[in-house]
Amino acid sequence: MRAKLNIEAEVAALGDLSREELAAQWERIYRCAPPKGVRRELLIRAAAWHLQAKRLGGFSTETRRMLRSAIDRVEKKIADRDSQANVVDDDIKVTNAQKRKQALPGTRLVRDWNGKTHIVDVIEDGFVFEGKIYPSLSSIARKITGAHWSGPRFFGL
């Protein structure tokens, strides 16, 4: 019981540490700097978890095995997606960055232009704007502005 009270007091004391002290603790625990912009609350929780795991024991062997398996599945999915994204077709290389710019069906794009809000819904075969289906965002941007625009750029993709 006494050990539990000591841990509770130590965890509570983490809230009194400065962000710099918490970041130093993170570096000591994880052997790297905390991610840029990480909030103080996350630094406190990470330090608290590490303290409790050190004193009371961390994950069980089974939990570690399950986490490792889940990580392996996610890494395999990412590797498969990356290898499929780097396809060369007619001397045009499609990269992940380019692929991410495509809006998925069901997405709603909103753009204010000259005081009017324009809404575009993404569907499987194109884009719906003002009740009509368009093959590209650029054709919609041209209709809205009267000038040639990159549709993805106009809609902030």
From TrEMBL:
Which InterPro entries does this chain map to? DUF2924
One of the Pfam families matching this protein, by short name: DUF2924
- Recorded superkingdom: Bacteria
Q: What is this protein called?
A: DUF2924 domain-containing protein
Q: Which organism is it from?
A: Mesorhizobium tamadayense
